[in-house]
Write a structure and sequence with these properties.
Elements lengths: L1 H19 L9 H9 L5 H15 L4 H36 L3 H8 L1 H12 L3 H10 L5 H10 L4 H26 L5 H21 L2 H6 L1
Helix pairs in contact: 2-4, 3-4, 4-8, 4-9, 6-8, 7-9, 9-10
Amino acid sequence: MLRFSVLALLLLWVIWQLHSSPYIFHPASVDDVRRWVASYGNLGPLVYIALYAVRPLLFFPGIFLNLSAGILFGPMLGIVYLLCGGLSSALLCYALGSLGGGRKLLDRYGGCWGERLTNYLSGSGGFVKMLWLRTVPIFPYDPVSIIAGCCKMNLQLYAAATVLGMLPGAIAYNLLADAVSGGSGLYVSAAVVVIAFGLPLAWWAWGGEHKKLKE
């Protein structure tokens, strides 16, 4: 409990510093992200990945970063940088869950969904289950990452499933952002978005995987 209290206080202090400092970037739109990252020139990719990594502590929507990648770097490199940033963010949340008294906090405040996700990830087939949680667009990204850390899920499997599960969405976001910002194939990009998010959701609902989460 002492270690947990110290870590909790340290985390709260870091979050307070991030939100009170005038030197920390707090985007309110996709265009804010685009202008800020672009202002760093050749360092833009590293700045983008770093911003994505600390996003859970800054409490702004990840959609800003997902859509700005294609605008900033093009549809191909945008996918690569989005995956790097998303994985960095996922590893940070995993660390927050695995350090200190994360499991005790989850047991006390996680509620029924926290308990279901914990039981779901604690069983066998962790890679496939994490892949489902990353691909199906109904599960909040950061809480799933924290729960995986609390469950002490194998880090290599967790990272691999996270990247692979993010890939369809990364492709869809980057193609859509590129099309909206002046590229071609808006209708094709919109179709890719529907496929990337709709097919996993449909398979989750009708394929029976959702029943395992409720067990």
